[in-house]
């Protein structure tokens, strides 16, 4: 199994109680996407035969790295068509995260979707090694960990110039992303891995409207809440386009939305997130 698979394969310590790994990070806090993904993975373990279609979550406190994450799942409903779960995450007996997830039994029906934006394919964009070589020391130091060889997610940035000329107009905050290593053929694992990736760049998208990035020393940033709708089966280890936009910033908060497409143009998920974007004095 890959390391990411291990993070998402939680230990069930008692019925509907799961223990998650909290690996170290360069900023000494638990990555919000990790908590999202482990919470969804925990809920999926309690809803066999169901397909996840939505997750709504609040980040209540920052999590500590290297401290286990304790997940408690409450079965709120098990209907013929839908099942609903609440998942609470604790560290040191403190509630740091709470989410609701809904699951559906397989069902057919009407279908439509919006078109995928026209952007360069991932193969036409520089890989992390070429990107860092091209931009050298100008690339934000704090951003480099996303392109480190041991990073679990591979990213292709469609408009990297944003990080250097602080463009606020005509900037496309779009990325291609995928899990680097091949994952097992377990749908639940791919849904959870997508939840992990869905928290990568939404706060940065809100800051882009102001010519800023997530990596500015004067910016205090954090995810506040997160909503994820899962539309279609997917593979998280194949390229996915994350097309993002921000509709509002104000009161030290920013709202961003995103659509996630497979490389063949299928809309697989939609995301919305509000984040803290406070300017330090």
From TrEMBL:
Coiled coil: none annotated. It comes from the Bacteria. Residues 174-276 form the Acyl-CoA thioesterase 2 C-terminal domain. Its EC number is 3.1.2.20. It is an enzyme of class 3 (hydrolase). GO terms for biological process: acyl-CoA metabolic process; fatty acid catabolic process. Pfam families: 4HBT_3, Acyl_CoA_thio. Residues 25-104 form the Acyl-CoA thioesterase-like N-terminal HotDog domain. Keywords: Hydrolase, Lipid metabolism. One of its GO terms (molecular function) is fatty acyl-CoA hydrolase activity. Homotetramer. Belongs to the C/M/P thioester hydrolase family. This is Acyl-CoA thioesterase 2. It comes from Beijerinckia indica subsp. indica (strain ATCC 9039 / DSM 1715 / NCIMB 8712).
């Amino acid at each position: 199994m890959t390391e990411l698979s291990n993070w998402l394969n939680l230990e069930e310590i008692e019925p509907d109680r799961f223990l998650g790994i909290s690996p170290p990070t360069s900023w000494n806090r638990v990555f919000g996407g990790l908590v999202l993904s482990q919470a969804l993975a925990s809920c999926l373990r309690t809803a066999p035969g169901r397909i996840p279609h939505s997750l709504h979550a609040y980040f209540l406190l920052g999590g500590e790295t290297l401290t286990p994450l304790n997940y408690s799942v409450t079965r709120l409903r098990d209907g013929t068509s839908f099942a609903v779960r609440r998942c609470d995450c604790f560290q040191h007996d403190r509630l740091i995260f709470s989410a609701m997830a809904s699951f559906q039994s397989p069902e057919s029906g009407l279908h439509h979707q919006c078109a995928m934006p026209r952007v360069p394919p991932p193969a036409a964009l520089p890989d992390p090694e070429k990107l860092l070589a091209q931009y050298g020391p100008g690339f934000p130091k704090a951003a480099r960990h996303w392109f480190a060889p041991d990073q679990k997610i591979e990213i292709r940035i469609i408009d990297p110039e944003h990080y250097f000329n602080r463009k606020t107009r005509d900037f496309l905050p779009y990325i291609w992303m995928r899990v680097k290593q091949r994952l097992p053929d377990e749908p639940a694992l791919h849904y959870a891995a997508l939840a992990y990736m869905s928290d990568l760049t939404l706060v940065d998208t809100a800051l882009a409207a102001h010519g800023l990035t997530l990596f500015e020393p004067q910016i205090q940033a954090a995810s506040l809440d997160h909503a994820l709708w899962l539309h279609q089966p997917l593979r998280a280890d194949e390229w996915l386009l994350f097309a993002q936009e921000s509709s509002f910033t104000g009161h030290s908060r920013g709202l961003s939305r995103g659509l996630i497409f497979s490389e063949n143009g299928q809309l697989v998920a939609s995301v919305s997130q509000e984040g803290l974007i406070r300017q330090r004095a």
